[in-house]
Amino acid sequence: MGRRVGFGRWSGAALPLALWAIEGAQDQYSGQRELMVREQLEVRGIRDAAVLRVMREVPRHLFVPAALRGLAYEDQPLPIGHGATISQPYVVALMTEALAVTKKHRVLEIGTGSGYQAAVLAQLASRVYSVEIEPELATSAAETLHRLGYDNVTVLPGDGYQGWPREAPFDRIIVTAAPPEIPQALLDQLAAGGRLVAPIGSWRSQELVLVEKGKDGKTRRRSLGPVAFVPMRTGAR
Ligand code: SAH
User: Fold this and answer.
1) Cβ of 134 below 6 Å from ligand 1
2) How many angstroms does the Cα of residue 211 sit away from the middle of ligand 1?
3) CA 59 from centre of chain
4) Cα 221 to Cα 102: distance, rounded to the nearest angstrom
5) How far is CA 67 from CA 5, 40, 90, 168, 198, in A?
6) Catalytic residue among 11, 87, 130, 140, which?
7) Largest CA distance in the chain
8) Is position 87 annotated as part of the catalytic site?
9) The model's pTM
10) What is the pLDDT of residues 101-152, one digit of tens each?
11) Tell me, what's the pLDDT at 4?
């Protein structure tokens, strides 16, 4: 951190080396990740071994703005620009555990943001499709994911209210911005036997909802408790 001098003037050959040097330093964060898993996730009841393993592995500090890297493993959300936030680690783990993702699953995420939640899902799923309404966030998240080797994630700049009809149905759907109601398009794009998690409600007062779609296509929903997400925007593409 704080040593970003001269990036713009470096030659094409030196730039990848500089990025490697930064990422090579990621091991210095593994101790912080371990503490995060123990003190924020395990004590609050996250039990799924695969989820805990992935939370120990994904370099969260590389998904936050450089100036906030030192706070990456703190028990809090962090601003990532454009009014968006990277969720608190516990909320990422809770939603991921509720989804019960396996390597057979194709997952749709609404709200790519930093790309961190997509990276966590990518390690558990066969493929992740992530929709982001803010074009600059979509671009930077796609770059980060590509650079870190997450080649089973596709980021689509667009409005998540429409889902991603071309790739539907999805085995799992996660919404990381809060709509007032579950968008019908997303329920329609959820496969039979599928699961969807979403924060539902108004500004700053939402409940995390888990929807399970039976083999018969009927849905059941239950609440996983109160959460606070940025509102899901309605808007043109
Ligand atoms: N999952 C992200 C955090 C997302 S914050 C992470 O791991 O970092 C919520 C994101 O939802 C923001 O980036 C915001 O721009 C995006 N968003 C808001 N409304 C949206 C919509 N209608 N469609 C797609 N993305 C939306």
Assistant:
1) yes
2) 20
3) 13
4) 21
5) 14, 23, 22, 38, 29
6) 87
7) 60
8) yes
9) 0.90
10) 999 999 999 999 999 999 999 999 999 999 999 999 999 999 999 999 999 9
11) 34
Token pair 């930064």 is found at 22
**Residue 65, helix vs strand vs coil:** coil
Residue 82: count other Cβ atoms within 10 Å of its Cβ. Answer: 14
Per the document, the length of the chain is: 237
Could you tell me where the DSSP H helices lie in the chain? 14-24, 30-36, 49-57, 89-99, 116-122, 135-147, 184-188
Angle between helices 89-99 and 49-57 (to 10 degrees): 140
The atom of ligand 1 lying closest to the CA of 234 is 22
Matching residue, tokens 């730039």:
15
What is the Cα–Cα distance from 50 to 96, expressed in whole angstroms?
A: 10
Mapping DSSP onto H, E and C, the string for 91-128 reads: HHHHHHHHHCCCCCCEEEEECCCCCHHHHHHHCCCCEE
- Both structure tokens of 221: 């929903």
3-state SS of 146-161 is HHCCCCCEEEEECCHH
> Comparing 11 with 66, which gets the higher pLDDT?
66
Paired with 86 in beta bridges are 78
Ligand 1 neighbourhood includes 144 CB (under 6 angstroms): no
